[in-house]
Amino acid sequence: xxxxxxxxxxxxxxxxxxxxxxxxxxxxxxxxxxxxxxxxxxxxxxxxxxxxxxxxxxxxxxxxxxxxxxxxxxxxxxxxxxxxxxxxxxxxxxxxxxxxxxxxxxxxxxxxxxxxxxxxxxxxxxxxxxxxxxxxxxxxxxxxxxxxxxxxxxxxxxxxxxxxxxxxxxxxxxxxxxxxxxxxxxxxxxxxxxxxxxxxxxxxxxxxxxxxxxxxxxxxxxxxxxxxxxxxxxxxxxxxxxxxxxxxxxxxxxxxxxxxxxxxxxxxxxxxxxxxxxxxxxxxxxxxxxxxxxxxxxxxxxxxxxxxxxxxxxxxxxxxxxxxxxxxxxxxxxxxxxxxxxxxxxxxxxxx
Length: 352
Prior knowledge:
Helix content is 49%, strand content 11%. It is α/β, with parallel strands linked by helices and 352 residues long. The radius of gyration is 20 Å and the shape is globular.
């Protein structure tokens, strides 16, 4: 268990956090998050540590999100439910600590970066994507909602791009991540490794840190060869996803004869109706909220989703049985009413 996350400190002042569950795509558990939070606090007060690198072990990616199989057990007992709630509390505390961290954090968004992986990287000071990056907030696929501060950061994307990403759970590449403000720099995966070696081999104790980091990034980064598909689609995405009601988004798409609109409509209708409505409300309300307020809302929503049958049915269909045929309690958008939706935004108001 203790090897699920690795910590190391070099003589030059570089500390490294490595998510070390490559067979599980480095998916997060409480056993990983708690020590990460403790190390970040310890390193914050250590003057010998100047820079932190956040990376994932293995060839497939940084992090695929939270360990869904563990959360699925939350329906089995009060103890398992409490453990799932603790997971979210720990996760959100670590995510917020990264946003507020006083030292540079270099996040390596190489390969798969989804859900909880996005949460860990979004607040980092220097975020690097590669040609291998596959970025998504995929929670809509399992009857959940985009958490880890998504209400805050998806509203930072241009126009209504964040709304599209949240509601469709689309997987995007490096060019799109840069356009959506999910990363700052692009390097090829080979160059990223060379860059990290340079960072490790530099003595940071006598350097102007930010100037030197930016100089190094400039040496190894390049313009992404992948143009942003989202940028070219922004006008049509804004047209449809600026609506305040899911049914109106569907209606708007239905009135658009384009292939994109037709595919997007069918994609939305394949998701959990309750997840769609709650997520749109979450994003709209988050426009006026601080980071801390967004995470507080996430915690209320997460606790209520842990008491929501459609979350477990979504997980069953994708992760457990893998039949991709969820039988949700709420089959249509109309069945999930305004009153049903409101309950999710109040503590302890949803019962399994």
